[in-house]
Request: fold
Amino acid sequence: MQLQNYYYYFQSALTPRFCDELIKYGISQQEELALTGGETNKIIKGNKLNNKDIKDLKKKRDSNIVWLNDKWIYKEIQPFIHQANKLAGWNFDWDFSESCQFTKYKLNQFYDWHCDSWDAPYVNQNNKDTFGKIRKLSVTCSLSDPKDYKGGELEFDFRNMDPDKPTVRKCAEIAPRGSIVVFPSHVWHRVKPVTKGTRYSLVIWNLGYPFK
Reply:
């Protein structure tokens, strides 16, 4: 799918107070090891991760997360998703936001190249909000002051998506605290290793029925 815009951003859109409150709330909750799709599917099937699984996971992704689904968070961020969807010219039909992923990237932690979309719609018929839907729009919010960490840059990979944009691009636009970037969930991206301090971010995936 070729697009005119592969991401859309809002610099310093969230207030420092909102970022502070979200960080304080996030770090007060019980954190867990961030997984990728493979490990998640293994757990869904009732299997536990062994030491080899965790070692292999940390070659691809190493971070700690907290799941949040508070209305005050969605109320603040969802308007920007709607704006980006329109202003970027995507106009994707979507109607549900998954749980927010509050993420901590500490020293040397990272997330290698990946895309957020799955290879098939969600299949849990007991969840009417997700059944039959796919991830269409991803959102990343920068919560930390860039003075508090180094590294941890978000990068996009256009090399296999558009022959006119054969490059990796650093999303420097969201470096300022409170900045938001919205992008189609099939766009490949990564978070480079943090080399100093801790980077806090919030990620939300937004669902709709498959493209026709």
Notes: The first helix runs from residue 16 to 27. The first strand starts at residue 8 and ends at 10. DSSP finds four helices and 15 strands in the chain.
